[in-house]
Amino acid sequence: MTKPRRKSRRQPAQLAANDNGARQAVEAFTFGDPEPVLSRATMMDMLECYDNGRWYEPPLSRDGLARAFKASPHHSSAIILKRNMLAASFVPSPMLGRSAFAAMVLDYLVFGDCYVQEIRNRLGGVLRLEHSLAKYTRRGLETGRFWWVPNHKDEVAFDLGAVHQLRAADINQEIYGVPEYLSALQSALLNENATLFRRRYFENGSHAGYILYATGEFADGDVDKMREALKRSKGPGNFRNLFVHSPNGKENGIKLLPIAQVGANDEFLGIKNTTRDDVLAAHRVPPQLLGIVPANAGGFGDVTKATDAFFELEIEPLQAVFLELNEMAGLEVVRFRERP
Fold first, then answer.
1. Which residues pair with 116 in a beta bridge?
2. Separation of alpha carbons 167 and 328, rounded Å
3. Is the dihedral of CA 305, 307, 310, 316 positive or negative?
């Protein structure tokens, strides 16, 4: 830390105002509140799966992942596309309906794991499987024990062995799953921040920052009037023109010095396009399947071939993940129709 400087007793610096030798002190003031660009969220901080004596806590905030699901249109659209294609190829059964399966798929793609609960009859037989929200389901310390934790006071323990978990493998722990798109989550959040910043940019009215540099001679109260006029130019009714009259001022007595890039629109488009590509690469979804307009005349190629390749490389491996539920339940509860 540097020591604070003592206040100088010297008079303020003087600046020549016009050709007649009159001198006037420089006056400076700020206007316009700073606009935050990035949020202070620390959702991406990785933690160990510590236990509280009854269950393990997830390594990532489930609430944060749920909110990030809607951060970027390409992020949520890619997940919904996979969910819809899996649900369309699923064959419903009395044990597991299509809606419950679609909810399982959405949990698996967003959180990296999903859960189903066995509903049993009085004799202990399995009647059906119901989806249990991954956001509120926790894995207990006891083998085969799971907990329902909607908040910090109404937790309920499931029956031992009544809940089955499907999870995406993680290199750091083997208790909970971690979503595959984690490496592109920062890009999805930056995409959202760029859009929010651009909205605030237009709503605020003071788009590019600037310095109003005045050296002319002004009558008493003129500076205060200019200050008030600039303050009123923000918010609703912005983009107003400001007229300043200085009868005795010299040329270039009032200057407007921009301190921000006027071409911010190009930077905005660059951020949006780059973060979109990152998200699509993490989800491995062809752009033509998400309705993205190509920037070149050649387009993205045949959409049918792209769909076939996407189904073979992404949807079929996901189908294999959910077929594991048959081994866990000891029954054929998941089955998919063959693609024509």
1. 131, 164
2. 13
3. negative
131 closest CA partner among 86, 153, 98? 98
> Which class for 334: exposed (0-12), middle (13-18), buried (19 or more C-beta within 10 A)?
buried
In the structure encoding, which two tokens stand for residue 46, read together?
Answer: 């990785």
DSSP 290: G
Contacts of 264 (CB under 8 A, 6+ apart): 201, 207, 208
Closest to 129 measured CA to CA, from 155, 167, 157, 103 = 103
Top pLDDT among 123 and 181 is at 181
* DSSP codes of every residue in 141-209: SSTT-EEE-SSSS--EEPPTT-EEEEE---SS-SSS---GGGGGHHHHHHHHHHHHHHHHHHHHS--S-
pTM of the complete model: 0.70
Indicate the Cα dihedral angle 90, 94, 95, 99, nearest 10°. Answer: 50
Residue range 228-271, pLDDT digits in tens: 777 766 555 555 566 666 666 666 666 666 655 444 555 788 88
Cα–Cα dist 45/56, whole Å: 17
